[in-house]
Write a structure and sequence with these properties.
Blueprint lengths: L2 H23 L7 E5 L11 E7 L17 E7 L2 E7 L10 H4 L1 H8 L4 E10 L9 E10 L26 H13 L4 E9 L7 H9 L4 E3 L3 H10 L2 E11 L10 H24 L1
Parallel strand pairs: 1-4, 1-5, 5-9, 6-7, 7-8
Antiparallel strand pairs: 2-3, 3-4, 5-8, 6-9
Length: about 280
């Protein structure tokens, strides 16, 4: 067996072992939805009833989240009528993780039977119509991470070698999220997310370039997970919280503390939107 196939088999074993461990810790109903909660957006877990909480370090082969605002816990329980897996904290390239680590939560969730995914993230707003604290419901994305989670051996029983990406985010779900946001008087629009590697924020010239490519917001996550959803045939939705404004002609310095503060202020709106969506 060549080294590429061997690495693919080792990763498959890692995923299946972790999924079995999670299943044993949660002998209840099959989960329907996986939630991956981004920077400073973990308060949604308070809406989960009858929950089981598993620290990441108790899942075999699972990484440890090191990013600020990422607690590193898996919650399993109920939000409304939906049985959910909620990963409170994700993994990023800038932390030094490999793509296999970054998408491990989604691969595990697929083994456990989920049919849909909802991702949240904090991002910088480049569209001049956006304000701090706004929500952006993703229609599409641009991958500038310089890496792809499907690189390497393909498991044909999980998904095709060349998955279609014409609709990385479910447009029907995006329309429903927009409708709920309007009903709840939440400032939310739809748009395009561009993922970059980070961890530094962008220069003025980079913001101009990224916006000219058609992106409304910029962040450092979400795209790898969405690619895995497309590969596995899982319906994906994603909601970005605009935590800082990226106007290259009036660019101001921003700190992690400010980003976390804006995310915390916007988090109740995100929670209300997701809970209503899951109860729909």
């Amino acid at each position: 067996m060549n080294h590429i196939l061997q690495a693919g088999q080792q990763q498959r074993q890692r995923i299946e072992t972790a999924a079995e461990a999670v299943a044993n810790l949660n002998p209840g109903a099959t989960p329907e939805v996986v939630l991956v909660l981004g920077t400073g957006l973990g308060a949604l877990v308070s809406e989960i009833s009858d929950s089981v909480t598993i620290p990441y370090q108790e899942i075999p082969g699972f990484p440890t989240s090191t990013a600020p605002g990422h607690a590193g816990r898996l919650h399993i329980g109920q939000i409304g009528r939906a049985r959910v897996l909620a990963f409170e904290g994700r993994f990023h390239l800038y932390e030094g993780w490999h793509m296999d680590d970054i998408v491990l939560p989604i691969r595990i969730s697929c083994r456990l039977g989920v049919s849909s995914a909802i991702f949240s993230n904090s991002c910088g707003g480049m569209n001049p119509d956006l304000q701090k604290g706004d929500l952006l419901i993703l229609d599409d994305h641009i991958n500038l991470l310089g890496a792809n989670p499907l690189t390497g051996a393909n498991h044909d029983d999980w998904g095709p070698r060349f998955p279609d990406m014409s609709q990385p985010y479910c447009l029907e779900s995006a329309a429903r999220l927009s409708q709920i946001a309007s009903q709840e008087q939440i400032r939310a629009s739809r748009g395009v997310y561009v993922a970059v590697a980070g961890p530094n924020l962008e220069t003025r010239a980079e913001y101009r370039m990224l916006h000219s490519l058609g992106a409304d917001v910029v962040g450092m996550s979400t795209v790898p997970e969405a690619i895995i959803c497309a590969h596995e045939g899982i319906r994906a939705s994603a909601i970005s919280v605009v935590t800082d404004l990226c106007d290259p002609d009036n660019l101001k310095k921003v700190s992690v503390e400010e980003i976390l503060s804006v995310a915390a202020e916007a988090e109740p709106k995100l929670t209300r939107l997701v809970v209503n969506f899951l109860n729909d």
